[in-house]
């Protein structure tokens, strides 16, 4: 295995980094953060970076997996909104399973940065055990009538369309009888209600679907085979390097804070326990980076990662929580102050990370689910 970037890949990573330093910015007071986000994504689309690794026939640049990794690593470090669900998951899934008509309809708006997608998988009684979902889709001539609800649907209140899992054969075993639909959010019968998180952000939503009629051509892949399509979507979601590198900038800030902040006349980093904790975290970040590189390398060799993606996802999610916990402890009481407080170290970054990271081991599949995948598919262990 050779995980090193080629000179061309490293040069591209530096090009992306230089672009981010110029173009990336936080919204100013009074600005619409969503509009700032979408404007930035449109700039990425104009450069062809939003769908960098897509085939050229569908508007991509046909870049290899390692080139895509170099891009993802750069944007993750700067916490840039550089991958949306459409380019990251929906488009690749449609390319694998969609009809020619579906590709013609859905892919170009993703390439241009115009389409906003959300993911309707989890339900109030079907999260970790996703195959227990109860949303129903009943055939009625050339249409399906869908009823049920979804929860924790990120940016559903902004989305143009949703990828939706619904049960089309209630008598089949739970992993079968599920179908995968591509549904416009303005379809009559679709209602979105907000879920505000502990930080006060409105990103999550509940989506209620009541007697929603969709044409047969919104069905992606074969009827009753949606579970197997969804696993491909989930592998796309779990295999990115951003779960590790997305926290690395916070780590670098914490190291700088420990070097610059003095207590009793000595830098925090002179404390043996602080030094040991920062050293341990550095090692963990490098391990996480290698796990992410491994997934990309496998893809570059036409090897489909499965449990390897779960290893990377689980490790990155839990590492972010360990970093947040260490940061708050190193900073002391001040580390618990929220953004906006004039006394908050690093502008309250670690207080926010501490709260936000609690969801990371649930989102995109709980750590328990990832461990089950690793045990069964990776180690060949029997089910308990």
Tell me what you see in this structure.
Helices cover 45% and strands 15% of the residues. The protein is globular and about 80 Å long. It has twelve helices and ten strands. The longest helix is centred in the C-terminal third of the chain and has 29 residues, at 272-300. The chain folds into three domains: 7-83, Acyl-CoA dehydrogenase/oxidase, N-terminal domain (Butyryl-Coa Dehydrogenase, subunit A, domain 1), CATH 1.10.540.10; 118-224, Butyryl-CoA Dehydrogenase, subunit A, domain 2 (Beta Barrel); 239-378, Butyryl-CoA Dehydrogenase, subunit A, domain 3, CATH 1.20.140. The strands form three sheets. It has a four-stranded mixed sheet with strand order 1-4-5-8. It has a four-stranded antiparallel sheet with strand order 2-3-7-6, with no helix packed on it. It starts with 6 loop residues before the first helix and ends in a 6-residue tail after the last helix. Helix 4 (85-97) runs antiparallel to helix 5 and helix 10 crosses helix 11 (349-356). It has 384 residues and is an alpha+beta fold.
Chart the SSEs and their pairings:
Layout lengths: L6 H17 L9 H15 L17 H13 L7 H13 L2 H12 L5 E4 L15 E5 L2 E8 L10 E7 L10 E7 L5 E7 L5 E14 L3 E2 L5 H13 L3 H4 L2 H13 L1 E2 L2 E2 L4 H29 L6 H25 L17 H8 L10 H12 L6
Parallel strand pairs: 1-4
Antiparallel strand pairs: 2-3, 3-7, 4-5, 5-8, 6-7, 9-10
Give helix and strand order, one letter per element, not per position.
HHHHHEEEEEEEEHHHEEHHHH
CATH topology of the largest domain: Butyryl-CoA Dehydrogenase, subunit A, domain 3
CATH class of the largest domain: Mainly Alpha
Question: How many alpha or pi helices?
Answer: 12
Count of DSSP strands: 10
Uncertain runs: none
Q: Could you give a short account of the major beta sheet?
A: 4 strands, mixed
- Strand percentage: 15-25%
